[in-house]
Amino acid sequence: MKVVWKLETATVRDVYEQLRKTRDLAYTTVLTMMKILEQKGYVKKTRAEKAFVYRPAKPRAQVIAGMVREFVDRVFDGASRPMLLHLVKEATLSEKERKALLRAIDEVEE
User: Fold this and answer.
1) Which stretch of DSSP H or E encloses residue 89?
2) φ, ψ for residue 29 (rounded to 5)?
3) Which own/partner pairs from 43-47 qualify as long-range (CB within 8 Å, at least 24 positions apart)?
4) How many whole angstroms separate alpha carbon 3 and alpha carbon 10?
5) Does pLDDT of 109 surpass 70?
6) What is the phi/psi pair of residue 33, to 5°?
7) Where are the beta strands (DSSP E) in the chain?
8) Is residue 60 within 8 Å of residue 5, measured between CB atoms?
9) Domain extent listing, the chain
10) Is 70 exposed, middle or buried (0-12, 13-18, 19+ CB in 10 A)?
11) 3-state SS string over 29-54?
């Protein structure tokens, strides 16, 4: 999704070429992921000459919220607190970041 957001519109080849700059992966892997993103409603595609062109279907914040919710449901059985505790324990947070996170949690719980 980051590549599609960055480019605004992209073919599978465009996404593949961007991702290959930082890691080795197969074209078919990117094709599969683009199909999954389309099935989930995160991207839309249109036919342009010989290839499909993908574009974001929803605003970035809405897509991120959906992906995070899906991850929390799948990995943490829908409970956000264990995920947050894991992030606080495992992530290298500065004191400022840790305090900001605690403030945010307190605000939600009030």
Assistant:
1) helix 80-90
2) -65, -45
3) 43/1, 43/4
4) 8
5) no
6) -65, -40
7) 43-48, 51-56
8) yes
9) 2-56, 60-109
10) exposed
11) HHHHHHHHHHHCCCEEEEEECCEEEE
- Is CATH 1.10.10.10 what the domain over 2-56 is classified as, yes or no? yes
pLDDT in tens, 57-100: 999 999 899 889 999 999 999 998 888 888 778 878 888 988 88
Look up tokens 């480019």; give the residue: 7
CB distance 65 to 58 below 8 Å: no
Cα 53 from Cα 42, distance rounded (Å): 14
Residue with tokens 């342009």: 48
**Maximal CA-CA distance, the chain:** 54
